[in-house]
């Protein structure tokens, strides 16, 4: 997997549309203090679906949008687009290039994009979850995070390393599996209770079921016999009517003057 492009538009200090092309090797972003270098790292984390504003050095969606300066008005929305080369199949989808984007508006609304299509945040986190790039992993290490890591106590730092090693995703899966196991245990207990309750009645239920089946067979036969019986009598009556009609016609013939 390789991050090829990053496009920022209205994100924090990036009032103008700004593109970064990441070629092979290391790319360094250099600038004076406060010029917005860390905002580049924030933008990547943000576009990957980060929901914790503290990790984005802000408090709300508004803080992600260019706030304006003495020379230009504030922006109405922020947009970040990441393009990954997926020719090695890092993302479990068929595309050789994956574009993940996020937009935010002043009313707090956020939109997520996958290869140009609007998707749900869930779709992005699902896609990233398969790769270890999920929101909480330390794929993007900003300046604040380095400071935090250096000042943390060993046990706190352990959580950071576990996240960085991608153990977090497996821990979540283990917790999910344990929860499902617990649910299954409950279901099993319920099934056992039901079995204890119905086992003594099984013989009786079997007899009832046999009778119900016999009833269905006999009812079918009865319907067939009834149909034949009525059909026979109908034909019989019709023949009698025809004979009577013919006899009457004969009589009419002889009695006519
Ligand atoms: P340093 O080298 O000191 O760490 P830096 O180059 O990493 O700095 P950043 O921390 O990325 O700089 O950027 C901080 C600057 O971004 C501040 O000047 C701050 O005012 C500006 N900034 C943050 N959010 C916004 C926003 N929504 N609109 C406009 N400017 C913003």
Q: TL;DR?
A:
By secondary structure, the chain is of the alpha+beta class.
Task: Kindly describe this structure.
The chain is α+β, with helices and mostly antiparallel strands. The chain has a domain at about 1-165: 3-Layer(aba) Sandwich (Rossmann fold). Helix content is about 50%, strand content about 15%. The chain has helices spanning about 35-45, 120-130, 145-150, 155-165, 165-200, 200-255; strands spanning about 1-10, 20, 75-85, 95-105, 110-115, 115-120. It has a 6-stranded antiparallel sheet with strand order 2-1-3-4-5-6. The longest helix is centred in the last third of the chain and has 54 residues, at about 200-255. The N and C termini lie far apart (about 115 Å). It binds adenosine-5'-triphosphate. Adenosine-5'-triphosphate binds near residues 31, 34, 35, 37 and 39.
């Amino acid at each position: 997997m390789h991050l090829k492009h990053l496009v920022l538009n209205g994100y924090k200090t990036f009032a103008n549309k700004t593109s970064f092309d990441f070629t092979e090797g290391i790319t360094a972003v250099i600038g004076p203090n406060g010029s917005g270098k860390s905002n580049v790292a924030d933008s990547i984390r943000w576009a990957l679906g980060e929901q914790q504003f503290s990790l984005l050095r802000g408090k709300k969606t508004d803080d992600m949008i260019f706030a304006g300066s003495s020379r230009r008005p504030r922006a109405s929305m922020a947009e970040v687009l990441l393009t990954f080369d997926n020719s090695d199949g890092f993302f479990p989808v068929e595309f050789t290039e994956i574009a993940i984007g996020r937009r935010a508006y002043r009313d707090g609304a956020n939109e997520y994009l996958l290869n140009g299509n609007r998707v749900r945040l869930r779709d992005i986190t699902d896609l990233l979850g398969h790769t270890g790039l999920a929101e909480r992993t330390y794929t993007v290490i900003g300046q604040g995070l380095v400071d935090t890591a250096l000042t943390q106590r060993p046990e706190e730092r352990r959580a950071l390393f576990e996240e960085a090693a991608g153990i977090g995703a497996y821990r979540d899966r283990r917790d999910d599996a344990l929860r499902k196991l617990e649910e299954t245990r409950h279901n099993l207990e319920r099934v056992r209770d039901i079995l204890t309750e119905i086992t003594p009645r099984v013989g009786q239920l079997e007899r009832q079921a046999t009778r119900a089946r016999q009833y269905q067979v006999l009812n079918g036969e009865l319907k067939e016999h009834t149909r034949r019986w009525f059909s026979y009598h109908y034909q019989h009556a019709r023949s009698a009517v025809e004979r009577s009609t013919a006899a009457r016609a004969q009589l009419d013939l002889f009695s006519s003057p």
